[in-house]
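User: I'm writing a short methods note and want a consistent example. For Replication-associated recombination protein A, I'll paste the sequence; you return only the structure tokens, no commentary, since I'll be parsing the reply automatically.
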Amino acid sequence: METDGLFSLASPDAPTAAPAGAATAGFGRPAGDAPLPVRMRPTTLDELIGQEHLLAPGAPLRQLVTGASPMSVILWGPPGTGKTTIAHLVANATDRKFVAMSALTAGVKDVRAVIDTARRERRYGGPPTVLFIDEVHRFSKTQQDSLLAAVEDRTVTLLAATTENPYFSVISPLLSRCVLLTLQSLGEDHVRDLLRRATTDERGLGGAVTLTAEAEDHLVRLASGDVRKALTALEAAAGSALAQSVTEIDLATAEKAVDVAAVRYDRDGDAHYDVISAFIKSMRGSDPDAALHYLARMLVAGEDPRFIARRIVIFASEDVGMADPQALLVATAAAQAVQNVGLPEAGLNLAHAVVHLATAPKSNSVTVALGEAMADVRAGRGGPVPPHLRDAHYPGSRGLGHGRGYRYPHDDPRGVVRQQYVPDDLVGTDYYRPTDHGAERAVGERVPRLRRIVRGHGPVTASARTADRAAGGAQGVNESQSSADSETAGPVTSATAGPDPAGGGIESSDDSGDSAGEEQR
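Assistant:
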């Protein structure tokens, strides 16, 4: 029976033992031999680097740290972006009781014990409890359910951290009771600032070593926005340098310490454009091995995977096109996977797309066709839209002759009718010229038949009827027949002028850099 402590032998003010699975160890002052990332944790909110979008006056994160508002918060972000650091700031910045547990080791019993203790202490005027749960996405649905009532009535203020998308890994009722704060990977400048601070700060290396520019660049690229990874690598490099009785960490020392060779790759310089150019040319040249090499080079160097995905999507239409229409689907799926999955796993999706595109048959007919069409438009070719194609749905349009004479292709058994679609000055112009590569071979056989029916070229012979059936699916239907025969078809001429051979199309991705230089990142 619940006695509310009236007959308890212990004093109401006596401290309560921490439940199993809960602890505050590691949330005090770090020991002198603690890892460098632990020693360099910010002690105040002003020392926190990055996440400026969460640090504005009155922002939820600032209110959480200062205790101005007891709101429950879920921190979502990649490793090394400051989730645990924020928990440390909350633990040390206010007089609230702070209890930490990991979802890896805690169970429902442990969570309920913390909540029961917090409820008893509130009854006796004790401090409010902040419950920090690391890796909350590893909690089962039942474990997350056990938090709902306590978070709802603020028996505890929940501070949860996760690297997984909470919309998939956290139950909706708990998510609706919390403020979701998204932490972003730190930029290179932020990581660089922290490396320099750790090198000189007394909490860190205290100036015992210096870091060359090349070694610093290597550690920044290696971190890929993960501050913990950068500081761990710096500590390993410093230990290696001091063991050799030297005080300067050069590139060779940094490479040996972390056992990762530096990749000569400047994301804002020539190497960036050279590598992406070689990457595109390797796929165009149908060399999957070379393409995978350059993909790996970019990923290891910390290139933005979204940039790589964009280039792959462009390549799918620019260089593969109709020779393998599925290539664009594969490329766009890989780009979506980059957004939803993220690195490192999304590297597999990119590699999948690269191998598909490199080994696919190639055709630039789409690129050439669009380029020539745009050149004609820029040159002023292309008159008014033929009247029978104009919109005839608004009142008065019929009086203007809009839609008059239009022939509905579906009324013809072949699904194709003789009709002019282009403006008068482009009649007979061919932009699209299919190749015989891959799937485009079948398209190349169909296009001339379609053009003959649409443009009305040549007499209808037995062989032509056979070709027409192949193009439109009809059997023995004269090309002039249609349910719209009562209407007058648009003018048809027999002009056969081809595209202007000098009409420049889209700039081809040749040795100029495969349009990579046009990518503004």
